[in-house]
């Protein structure tokens, strides 16, 4: 080290930070998706919209007890938001006001205050509210970000991307491929006649059919005495297994939304449809309804219950009737035998039947 090195500016040390998946990474990714939009458009496909419509219709028909704020319109918007965004935020006023965007302050992973944006026809407005003034329902929350929900489509992004790519490829084929165009061998004629023939033949999308004569075949290296047959230019999509791939992607998306793929099968019968309805109501819609009811009970200060099964008739009516007949017969037999009430109650408890159910 020389004397002049004392007057040289030292280089700034490089700052290294760990880029682990945590709060900052998830927050930046969520904000990026909100500003620039998702990279895929699988939510625009008919399969996803059918699943979203089933969620929306199921919640619209649900029976709500304990509050008048959760009307049909609010339930429909809530179900669509949960299906596409994974969470829904409403301001609690004289009615539920839907929020388009929000950020929050949390403590111990739970929101304590919100700054929400409410959409208006002349432009949105912002408003600050405490957590008790906001109805915030979220599904698919992780331990890293328990205050934010994730949509089923986001959790199944691989299947959603496959569905989008297959449908996009099929759209491009139907748009650009020479479907219906053919190569028709014709005898030689004058140049004017051949040009007129080429102009007269048009495909389904305006593609000119290719007409070749003997001279063109010889120039292309083909023997003029070989068999002349019509060559079809329509692409062979069967070898690409597009139908099977599309069906598998649709089934995966339906399963992500809690819908059995058999529901969309054209060969499905009535009993299978009823089982699909019971599956959707029992394992998807009713648990979501319990989450909504729990959040509404906490924020509205009154006990709220939401029942999806009765409105959708998602139970086995015949089995319930047979079970009721068996219960009545068992009660009559117990009365004739003189069994005490405690013994009958213990038997009902063993079968998971309470006195209210009995």
Largest sheet: 3 strands, antiparallel
Biggest β-sheet: strands ordered side by side in the sheet: 3-2-7
Query: What's the number of structural domains?
Result: 3
Taken in chain order, the helices and strands follow as: HHEHEEEEEEHHEHEHEHHEHHH
Kindly state the number of beta strands: 11
| Helix content estimate | 40-55%
Strand content: 5-15%
Low-confidence stretches: 16-21, 35-39
Give the class from helix and strand content and strand pairing: alpha+beta
- Spatial separation of the terminal alpha carbons: 94 Å
Which term fits the overall shape?
flat
Computed over alpha carbons, the radius of gyration is: 32 Å
Oligomer, anyone?
A: single chain
Number of helices: 12
- Estimate the mean pLDDT confidence: 80
Describe this structure in words.
The structure is a single chain. The chain has twelve helices and eleven strands. The termini are far apart. A hairpin with a 6-residue loop joins strand 5 and strand 6. About 3% of the residues have low confidence. The protein has a three-stranded antiparallel β-sheet with strand order 3-2-7. It has a three-stranded antiparallel β-sheet with strand order 4-5-6, with no helix packed on it. The protein has a three-stranded mixed β-sheet with strand order 9-8-10. The protein has 358 residues and is α+β, with helices and mostly antiparallel strands. Helix content is 46%, strand content 14%. This is Phage portal protein.
